[in-house]
Amino acid sequence: MALVGDLRVLLRFPDFRRLLAVRLLSQGADGVYQVGLAAYVVFSPEKETSAGAIASAMAVLLLPYSLVGPFAGVLLDRLQRRQVFLYGNLLRALLALATAALVAGTAPGWLFYVSALAVTAVNRFVLAGLSAALPHVVDAERLVLANSLSPTAGTLAATLGGGLAFVVRLAGPDESGPASVVTLSAALYLASALTALRIGRALLGPDADAARPGLGAALLGTARGLAAGVRHLAAPRRRRAARALLAMTLMRFCYGALTVMVLMLCRYAWPSGDTGVAGRVGGLALLGLAVSLSGAGFFAAAVLTPVAVARLGAGGWIIACSGAATLLVPPLGLPFAPVPLLVAAFILGLITQGAKISTDTVVQSSVDDRFRGRIFSVYDVLFNVAFVGAAGVAALILPPDGRSTALVVTVTAIYGATTLAMARFDGR
């Protein structure tokens, strides 16, 4: 396979291997940590979980990416990146242990969320640093290849970490399960920090002779740059990119709302007739299967989208994805039964990721190169805020057991409106 051959080429660079190991351990820990939080918030026997609690947890996990992300590079350019990986992961290991202690104890809920927020906020700096460090460990000829394979490998590590967390949670005692999972993430963060020590302290940059503005000026310049990116996107020539971004934001909103619905169904509706521990563990196993199938849909999208875009165009594939969701969500969602919704998890994973890949292509091809980075920062904010906003709306609509015809109909209407609007403009 070409992918295996490309990876073998990159692994000939010893410092790339070390940096990749830091990424895999760090993102694997992220997957474990996030599942540990979900298990605690949604499936703890002593907690009467609500959609509002799920929305709060999603806000904690995702909002740091949105709020801190565009400004992470400003601080990273003033710190040695190897030290960011070392101390950032050490800090996250300590915070994860604190989270585990809070989960195992009887601390107030707000303290748990503060701890989780701190862990996920640091994550943004680590991920940005991993990308910024790549030019220092591979040559220019293979940089594009490294930029393609490294994030993909990290996403796979996060998925595998989440799967490992489900296994640990299901195998362990119910009372200590979430705390055990979060403790495992702390061990992986520590391993990532120690792996960073194998990389030279100054190797990953930033270059000492690089001229940099003051911190305040750099932060202000970043804010102004984001505003300039939005203005650039609003120009008539870039409306194709703006429409694709809007369509992707709406589809991400729908995916987020349905995710909360499935979480509530796994917690209350699907462990039929058993309201005790065994029933809740059964719901957790179903959630693990749904997450795995959605992840399989993401990878299927990576294979199918290039072929589909070659035939339909990027805009045509977005239309096909949202149109398929419009047709399939009602028959798969309205029975509120496990098997149809597990099928939907795979299909919606494929549809959502396929539309995202197409949107990436439209943005890359439709905006000026000097604005591209800023517009992708805006894109990142929209992507995460849409998911958190969907969780908030779902919290207002969903009943305690997660069975909501109104939510399914609303999501279907949004998918349908997106399809019609994109078809109208794409036809022009």
Quote the beta fraction.
Answer: under 5%
Averaged pLDDT, please? 81
CATH fold assignment of the largest domain: Growth Hormone, Chain: A
Q: Share of helix among residues?
A: over 70%
Assign the structural class, choosing from mainly alpha, mainly beta, alpha/beta, alpha+beta, or little secondary structure: mainly alpha
Summed up, the helix count is: 13
Secondary-structure element sequence?
HHHHHHHHHHHHH
Taking the alpha carbons of the first and last residues, their distance comes to 40 Å
Overview of the structural elements:
This protein is mainly alpha-helical. The chain has 13 helices and no strands. The longest helix is centred in the last third of the chain and has 57 residues, at 277-333. Residues 275-281 have low confidence and may be disordered. The two termini are 40 Å apart. The chain folds into 2 domains: 1-205, Up-down Bundle (Growth Hormone, Chain: A); 229-428, Up-down Bundle (Growth Hormone, Chain: A). Helices cover 82% and strands 0% of the residues. Helix 2 runs antiparallel to helix 7, helix 9 packs antiparallel against helix 11 and helix 9 runs antiparallel to helix 13.
Which key phrases capture this entry?
single chain, 428 residues, mainly alpha, Growth Hormone, Chain: A, 2 domains, 0% strand, globular
